[in-house]
Every structure is written in structure tokens, then in C-alpha cells.
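Supplementary material to the annual report.
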Amino acid sequence: MARTTGSHAGITGPKIRQAALRLFAQRGYAAVSMRSIAAEVGVQAGALYNYTPDKQSLLVDLMRTHLDGLLEAAVPDDGGPLARLQQFVAFHIRFHADRPDEVFIAYMELRNLEPDNFVEIEALRRRYEDRLEQILRDGAEAGVFEVADSKIVTLAIIAMLTGVNTWFRQGGRLSLEEVVAQYWDMVRKAVGA
Amino acid sequence: MARTTGSHAGITGPKIRQAALRLFAQRGYAAVSMRSIAAEVGVQAGALYNYTPDKQSLLVDLMRTHLDGLLEAAVPDDGGPLARLQQFVAFHIRFHADRPDEVFIAYMELRNLEPDNFVEIEALRRRYEDRLEQILRDGAEAGVFEVADSKIVTLAIIAMLTGVNTWFRQGGRLSLEEVVAQYWDMVRKAVGA
DNA sequence: GTCTATACGTGGATAGAC
DNA sequence: GTCTATCCACGTATAGAC
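Predicted assembly:
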């Protein structure tokens, strides 16, 4: 018996987050209405408020979930600095390539976070950056890398790697693994290894 | 005789563009109202329409002006590939550091461009990228650079250099010229020169 | 050239029926 | 849990007085 309305507990919540993710990434947080999210899910706008207190919470949840996932998916941090750096580069590109919408939102919508939320999200991002910086410091200390300023090199590498998401498309000229190899080659040379 | 209203021909137009630039960069195009731009300038919202047909034109004008300026300010493209690459890196960082708001808008508000405008702006950006790619190709051909895929390296370098704007602040730990030197060191090594 | 006033659409969020 | 209906603020843009 088909029914077009009624209880869908357990699936509407995820569908809302999914719809918000897609729409925020495509049009930008400020340009997305609660009504448009509801329409994408197939409910009325009022129903969204059974799952989120407001629009801002929807944005924060998406960012926090993404960054938590990024930190938890951490590659095993073993081996020498060179091996760890290679793992980091490959992990970063693959993880980000799999989640273009999350990445886009996490970088582009920071200014739409209310102050407290901004602090929380920035702290998560900072923790991730610190991992790369630690690898670079260890490598410099061990004499494996030529890194004059580990903070700058960290930010430069992350910007370079994250930039892949602006142009990479599955089924394009290059496979993801070819991209990983090319970027690893550049990073390796850039740190003088 | 002070007057709070009347003709200000010749200054209101630039003030509007300046206010739009600042507000778009700070809050995002979609989150900025014509009223808020007018308030910043010190006029009523209706007065803006003496200077721009609509809000979208304001955005497009800012982007086009920025990218035109970028292309015109081009450094003299002489010398060998290594010298040209160094000039490009230094120019890019300095030019972008001087115009953080323009840069931010030109990268972040692309999705708020109507289709025709998007095509126009993207063509300008592409012309700029092509200049770097040509330098890399020339260097690879001359055997000065080790660049397996000039397109990827172009995008990687531009992402890395433009990323400076996300953290660099005048009066911070490093001077701009120190930043230029550090990035040039990384780029030079990354291309195997 | 700028103002005031306004048309008209759409925004986030809530109340109460089912 | 979802719906319909609604509140009220705010959005872009325009008309007409000064």
C-alpha cells in the first residue's frame, strides 16, 4: 500500500543533511532556503524543525561531521618522515576527492558560522594542519627535509592538495592515483627530499 | 554650508563599488543586501540604481575589474624560464596580497554568477593560468624544469600561491618579501629547477 | 542625484490540526 | 512526524516627488 505521507523516522534526518549538503555546496549557505531543502527531501519546510533547531545548526553539523571524519580517518602515523609525508599526501587527496561537497562547504562557508561555531570548527581544522606540520618538523630535525619554516610549508602543501578538488573529476584525463603520484612528486621535491 | 544631501556625482559610484567589494568579501554576495551597501555609502537603497542596473552587475564589475587588472599588471615576460617563473611567483603573491577582498570574491563568488557572466569571468582567469603554463612548458622543453604534466603543475602552483591570502597579514611574523622568498624556494624545488 | 514610499516576492521560524 | 497556515522581517527593484 503506497503512502505518500506518514512516518519515516530514521531516514528523513539523514536525507535532510544530504540535501542541505548538496544545496549548500552548489548555491552557498546564504542562498539556500529551508523551503528548498524541504522540497529536495520531499517534505514541507516546517517538518525540518523536527530534526534541526535551525538552519545554522544544519551547517555546523555538516562541517563538524566532515572534520571529525577527517581526523578519525587518519592514516597510521608510522615509519620515517618521508613515508609519513607520502601517506599524508595520498590520504588527503583521496579523502577530499571522495567528499567534494563537504570540502567545499568546510572551506567556503566559514564566514557564515556564528562566532562560537567558528571557533569550534577552526580548532578542528587546526588539529589537522598540526599533524602535517609535525611530520615536517620531524623530517627537518632528522635532516631528511629542507624546510625553513614548517608553518608556511604546511599551509602551502595543504592549499596545493586541497586545490585538486577545484578541477579533478572522475573519468577525466587522469585517474586519481595518477594525480596522487604527481602531487607526491611535487611535494617531495618541494620539501627537498 | 554643510549639506547632507544633494549631488555627489563622481564619488558615489566608486564608493558603491568599494562598499560592495568590502561587504561581498566579508559576508558573501548572497548575504549582502542592496540596503546594506547603500547604508555603508550613506545613501538610500534606491539611489544605487543610478549607478548599477542590479546587484549582479555590481558583482560582475568587481570581478572583471580585478581580473583585467591582473592581466594588465603582467610582469615583463622576458629572460629564461627560471627567471620568468620567479617573476611570476613574486608578482602573483604581491598582487594578490594587495587586494585580498578582490581575490576572495573572484574565487568564492563564481557560483553566484549568472551563466553568461560565469563564462566571461572564467575565460579571464584561464588566460592568466595559461601564462604560467606557458612558462612551465618552455622550461620543460628547454630541459630547465622537470614537469611531467604542465597543466597539473600550473594548477598546483596557483592554488599554493593564492593560498597565501588565507593567512598572510601585514605586520605578522613574516614580511611579504620573506613570504615571497619562501614560496619561490618551494616552487623552484617543486619544478625540479 | 537622492529621497520617500511602495510593490511584491521570499526568507526563517512557529502553531496547531491530523 | 508531517501537514497547512501564518507571522513578520527583509529582500530586490521601481515610481514619482524634490
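Chain B touches chain A at residues 26-31, 108, 111-112, 146, 148-149, 152-153, 155-160, 162-163, 166-167, 174, 179, 182-183, 185-187, 189-192 (CB under 8 Å).
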